[in-house]
Structure to design on (575 residues):
């Protein structure tokens, strides 16, 4: 073996090789993920620089402002409500959809396409269509309720229904995506389980509850983590449908962050809100790593 | 038990079939409605009669009312640029993680995984400041930069590379291939399905991405479709549903057509990407 080959495969050289291969990706990750996360944390203890006046240390003032900000708390409550509705609804629907299209059901190809289509469409585009559905007087929903003789209702303009309307759109968008994961898992289940259950005379419900559901557990946990993260990242449709209104009835955390940071340009306060969001998302991820990972195996 | 019974076991009843179809129709109703409105004159956007005349006029008006050609060009360029850089960087990084043993590899991998939990979508303010410092605000590069190093891609490819038998690698080395040649000739071809899966996920994510492009762009020259569409259809413009739905369909059409054509591969590669 030549000296050059020896050098190229020696431990020192391989380490250098490996780090060179990693370098471009790591530099970008540090620049646009790690550093901004740290900088945001630091910025949250400073004031917003204004004109010639630079940022000054204000300690916990931004967090105090957050605690005193009714819109922030409204966004927190809305976001929890939004998460509490979208997560079970989209996962439940995804499971039902997957169970259906995994079987020999009439029109299976069409059903799969119909359920999955919302996933590939831009949220900002389809929100335009939903906007029309919810429009007062002549929107589709109004025409339906009108035909049933119900009174007219401004779905997005009423603080009591705005958040629910936004939630429905999110569930519609997400369910088909989660269906794919369930479908993939169902197709890997051993067909002999089904035959065994049939011989035992187990009912369909028993087969689902005792066999399919437990075996789908890892998928459910995976989908659940994604659903939780998505619930705190969902924002696009708010821009089209309600802009957080009326009276902040449909403001979510990320939308509030956008308004504070890029409409009012209060970057210091926005940093404090970002820290809260990062903590929420990081806790979900850590929960996944340390609690769920024992059951969800990535090999 | 009769064989026919066993085959029918656990299969959907007619009740399931009806329910599944009702749900499916509800699910594509928004799209059906958009198609109806976009292809009919404005007065039929709320009246559904079979006699309504078909027209392409809404598409023409939408196309003329906003620089959609520019938006299409921007989005296409953006999506292609992001995907190309992501694939190259992730391939190199994944290879390092899968086939090299070196001090600090676990720490480096942990640093990569951090991005899976804190996505760039959240760090808007800090990333905006960075772009301002770099003088990149309002450019396509600024939209793409935070996404160039994709932890998801690195993770997926590392998993795949780890599954490739080491013997293949060693055989190629004995033949005198360098590390880069082995990567290019052995690993990349074997991981092709994963590349396809990731490409589909990446393209649909960045074609549809909205918040970060909205913040970092403010001119027609750099705006992607999603932001252009939002500017176009904001209520202050006066609402013309036929034109808005036409513009909406135009913006979604490339992905929608691609999805309908390659539906099988699309769904399967999503499955593969999701399960591994």
């Amino acid at each position: 073996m030549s000296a050059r080959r020896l050098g190229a495969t020696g431990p020192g050289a391989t380490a250098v090789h490996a780090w060179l291969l990693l370098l471009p990706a790591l530099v970008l990750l540090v620049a646009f993920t790690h550093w901004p996360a740290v900088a945001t944390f630091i910025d949250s203890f400073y004031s917003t620089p204004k004109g010639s006046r630079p940022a000054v240390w204000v300690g916990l003032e931004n967090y105090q402002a957050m605690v005193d900000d009714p819109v922030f708390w409204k966004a927190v409550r809305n976001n929890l409500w939004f998460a509490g509705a979208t997560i079970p609804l989209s996962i439940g629907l995804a499971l039902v959809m997957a169970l259906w299209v995994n079987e020999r059901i009439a029109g299976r190809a069409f059903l799969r396409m119909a359920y999955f289509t919302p996933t590939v469409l831009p949220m900002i585009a389809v929100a335009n269509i939903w906007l029309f559905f919810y429009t007062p007087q002549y929107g589709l929903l109004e025409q339906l309720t009108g035909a049933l003789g119900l009174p007219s209702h401004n779905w997005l303009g009423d603080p009591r229904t705005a958040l629910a309307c936004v939630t429905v759109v999110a569930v519609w968008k997400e369910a088909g995506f989660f269906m794919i994961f369930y479908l993939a898992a169902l197709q890997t289940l051993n067909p002999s389980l089904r035959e065994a259950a049939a011989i035992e005379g187990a009912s369909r419900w028993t087969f689902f509850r005792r066999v399919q559901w437990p075996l789908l557990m890892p998928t459910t946990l995976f989908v659940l983590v994604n659903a939780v993260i998505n619930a705190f990242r969902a924002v696009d449709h708010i821009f089209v449908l309600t802009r957080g209104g009326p009276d902040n009835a449909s403001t979510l955390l990320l939308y509030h962050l956008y308004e504070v940071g890029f409409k009012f340009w209060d970057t210091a306060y926005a940093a404090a809100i970002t820290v809260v969001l990062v903590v929420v998302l990081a806790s979900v991820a850590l929960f996944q790593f340390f609690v769920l990972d024992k059951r969800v195996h990535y090999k | 038990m009769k064989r026919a019974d066993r085959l029918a076991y656990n299969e959907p009843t007619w009740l399931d079939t009806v329910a599944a179809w009702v749900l499916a129709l509800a699910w594509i109703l928004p799209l059906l409605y958009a198609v109806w409105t976009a292809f009919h004159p404005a007065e039929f956007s709320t009246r559904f009669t079979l006699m309504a005349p078909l027209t392409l006029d809404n598409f023409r008006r939408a196309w003329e009312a906003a620089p959609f050609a520019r938006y299409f060009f921007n989005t296409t360029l953006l999506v292609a640029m992001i995907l190309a850089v992501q694939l190259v960087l992730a391939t190199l990084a994944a290879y390092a993680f899968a086939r090299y043993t070196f001090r600090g590899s676990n720490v480096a991998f942990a640093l990569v995984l951090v991005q899976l939990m804190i996505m760039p979508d959240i760090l808007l303010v800090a990333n905006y400041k960075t772009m301002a410092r770099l003088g990149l605000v309002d450019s396509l590069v600024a939209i793409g930069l935070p996404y160039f190093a994709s932890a998801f891609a690195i993770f997926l490819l590392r998993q795949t590379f780890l599954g490739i038998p080491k013997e293949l690698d060693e055989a190629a080395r004995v033949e005198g291939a360098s590390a880069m040649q082995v990567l290019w000739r052995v690993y990349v071809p074997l991981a092709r399905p994963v590349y396809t899966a990731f490409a589909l996920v990446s393209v649909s994510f960045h074609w549809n991405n909205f918040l970060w492009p909205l913040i970092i762009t403010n001119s027609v020259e750099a705006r992607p479709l999603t932001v252009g569409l939002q500017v176009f259809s904001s209520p202050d413009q006066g609402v013309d549903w036929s034109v808005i739905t036409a513009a909406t369909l135009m913006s979604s059409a490339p992905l929608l057509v691609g999805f309908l054509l390659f539906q099988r591969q699309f769904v399967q590669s999503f499955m593969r990407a999701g399960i591994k």
